[in-house]
Amino acid sequence: MVYYGLSLNSGNLAGNLYVNFELMSLVEIMGYVICLLGLNRVGRKLLHITCLIIGGGACLSTIFTVLYADKSLEWINIVLALVGKCGAAAAFAIIYIYSAELFPTVLRNSLMGVTCLFARAGGMISPYIADLDKLLTGQLGKALPLIVFGATAVAGGIMCFILPETLNKPLPETLENAVDFGRASKRLRRHAQDVNDCEHNEDKPLQHLTEVNGDFKSLLSNDQSVAKTIV
């Protein structure tokens, strides 16, 4: 929705319509370059969240330029919209890789089809959001489409925090693998914290360490069974 909506909203920005649309198309290239450089270095999750929040934050910031800046500063509104489009284009490219790696193999094609269905639904809604300025007159009406697009992008970026990172991780093959996907690293970090705590436990360090090691062995056996299932 944000990706298509920002392009359709280029006619509501100050300046020449054709120049604005051309700039919207050019910043997409920058977004794709960011994906190429960062996907295998930063990771899918962090890069996706960063693009959504920065792009959405730029769109939300247009409310200040529309309401409080004079016409000589309208170019700032265009720059913020371009930053939003760059972030949306990068996030749109990342999500196809990220979502495919999150879904288990047995349902990957079906779930990718469902996500594309909702994406197309967002694309159908975006023209109406871009025309919200016709429903609400005044300066706020001009900023309303970008506010909606920005709030949607920021909300999506925040919700992605609950998802696991998939970079250099074995992909889930079954539903059980998908449910457990991302939990192993959290349990290992918790185990390291427990070991660190037992070193400072002056009362029963040996007993505490034995309990922690028992939990860790159980964790390893579970992860090995998952690995065998994947193989």
TrEMBL record:
Keywords: Membrane, Transmembrane, Transmembrane helix
InterPro entries to which the protein is assigned, alphabetical: MFS_dom, MFS_sugar_transport-like, MFS_trans_sf
Entry's Gene Ontology cellular component terms: membrane
Record membrane topology: Multi-pass membrane protein
Membrane spanning residue stretches: 17-39, 46-69, 75-98, 110-130, 142-163
Subcellular location: Membrane
Domain of life the protein comes from: Eukaryota
Domain spans labelled Major facilitator superfamily (MFS) profile: 1-168
Gene Ontology molecular functions: transmembrane transporter activity
Name of the featured protein: Major facilitator superfamily (MFS) profile domain-containing protein
Source organism per UniProt: Biomphalaria glabrata
